[in-house]
Each structure stands twice: as C-alpha cells, then as structure tokens.
Amino acid sequence: MKAMDDKQLAKTSKFLSLVLRHQPDKIGIELDEQGWVEVATLLAAIRRESRPLTLAQLQEVVTRNDKQRFMFSSDGLRIRAVQGHSIEVELGYEAAAPPEYLLHGTPEQSVAIILETGLKKMKRHHVHLHHDRQTASAVGQRRGKPVLLQIAAGRMHADGYSFYVTPNQVWLTDEVPPAYLSILE
Fold it and tell me: Domain check: are 58 and 113 in the same one?
C-alpha cells in the first residue's frame, strides 16, 4: 500500500486529534476513563462518516506523526491521544522529577499576560512544557511570532508542584505561577 503524502497525513492527524482529544461524539465513539478506544470501533466509526481509513493508514499516522500525539496499547487493539485532551480522561502518568528548566512556546501577543498571571491549563488538563527549543518554538509559532518562556521547573518541583512526563516527552503540570517564568533570550 502506498504511503500517505504529507498533506493526507496532516489532515488525518488533525481529525484524529479532534475525535481522540476533544469530540469523540462527533463520530459516535466513547473513550474509556483513560482515553482509550478500540481500534476496530474507531475505524468503523470513521468509515460511517465517509472518511475511510485503513488499519495500515492509522498505524502510519501514529508512527509518522511529528509530535507523537497518539499511541497504541501494548496489544495494539486500542488507541488514544497521549495528551492535550479537553475532555475528562485520566491518563495515569506517574509523577516525575522534571529537569531544572523547561520551555513553553507562546505567541508574542500572549507574553505580557502570561508573565503577569502565569501559565494556566485553560480548557486542557495540563500546561504543556518541553525540554527542547525546537519543539517549544514550533508550538509557539502556531498563532504568531513565537516567544520562548523558561520555566524554573526544578524549583517548582522543590516547592511542591507536581510534574508528569508523557511517552512523547511532553512535561505536564497544572499551572506555572509567574514567579517561575522568564523570557528566554
């Protein structure tokens, strides 16, 4: 079978993000309490929506997704989004000690308010942080000129804030108060 081109891959990834992170009811599926859905159920629901997707194509999206947003269960029978849900799920990640500093990319127009009020999870379950500049910059430029914020994650952790790390190395926390933020030059 021919591999998906980049445009097909991006379109399918965005659709999977929508139904596995935000609106599973859009295609008539239900996620379990940890965000999993049976692969067969997902593929059948997508077919009913006239968006045919084969198992091989689904596997390709999971494998080639640049941010590794999705994962299969160890037996390959279920799939879920790794993080970024706006619906209630319990991903079951264990608390972890973060590196001394983490990064958050944000559009330039958001910097002043963030420095004043801190980073909030908004409609998501957690604030997403990264350990590398490239990923943080890519996230920040989605809505404008990116600015990188440095988070004193080690100090936050020492002060009692909890952190979790996902399989694709995104660090999660409930909030980042202003005292732990600075602009990375």
Answer: no
